[in-house]
Structures are given as C-alpha cells and as structure tokens.
Design a protein that fits this description.
Rossmann fold; 56% helix; single chain; 7 helices; mainly alpha
Length: 125
C-alpha cells in the first residue's frame, strides 16, 4: 500500500499530467491508503462545495490507516528525533508512523520529509 501525502494529492486533484495517470492507476488498483490528517489538510484548502464533495468521496471509498494513539506516538517520535528542527512537522510524523504501522510506502514531494525517510519506504512516481 502507498500513502500519498498532501502535496501528491494536490498534484493529482489539479490534474497535473506528470502525476494524474500514475495516481489514477494506483487508485483503480486499490493501492492507496488514506490518513485522516491528510484529508483534513486537503479539505481545509477546498475552495467550494464541489471540491469538498470530491475529497469526501475519495475519503469515503479509500482504506484508512488506524489512528489509535498515533498523535501521541508522533509527538514522542518527533521529540526523540528532534524532527521539528529538521523542518518535519507533526503531520509528517503521523504519515511516517502510519506507513510503519501498515507496512506502506510514502509518496511525497516534501524535501524535508524525504530527507528523514529510509529509501525503502519512499515510493516514487
């Protein structure tokens, strides 16, 4: 399974030809795992009801990461690894820990996040 971070979803939703077909294929083959905080970020940026409905539609049909205690674990992980000083925020930590929990890969355009990820966990389009 693959977790798309917010930056990748934005490229898909804006129909960027460098990403759209590849992500569409992953979605059609049920390879995408969703995380609530990513969709919250996307919904925060929705410009109208249509965009919100599209996002909610994706959210409703995608498999979801379990989030039990993930925010507390992310805070501890971030603190122990001093990630805030490396430009890696709490949502990125949630993404990383969710990927670890679900044996998933992460697809991101975030350079700071990529710097702390092991090569094996990164999914490149």
């Amino acid at each position: 399974m693959i977790i798309l971070d917010t930056s990748i979803w934005i490229e898909f939703l804006t129909l960027n030809p460098d990403y759209f077909d590849k992500i569409k294929d992953l979605l059609e083959n049920q390879k995408i795992l969703s995380i609530e905080c990513i969709f919250a970020e996307l919904l925060q940026g929705a410009k109208n009801t249509r965009e919100r409905n599209v996002l909610i539609s994706y959210w409703n049909c995608l498999p979801k990461c379990s989030t039990d205690n993930i925010w507390i674990e992310a805070g501890i992980y971030s603190s122990e690894n001093k990630l805030i000083s490396k430009g890696v925020g709490i949502i990125d930590c949630v993404i990383l820990l969710s990927a670890n929990r679900h044996n998933a890969k992460i697809c991101t355009l975030d350079k700071n996040l990529k710097k702390i990820l092991k090569k094996e966990i990164i999914f490149n389009l």
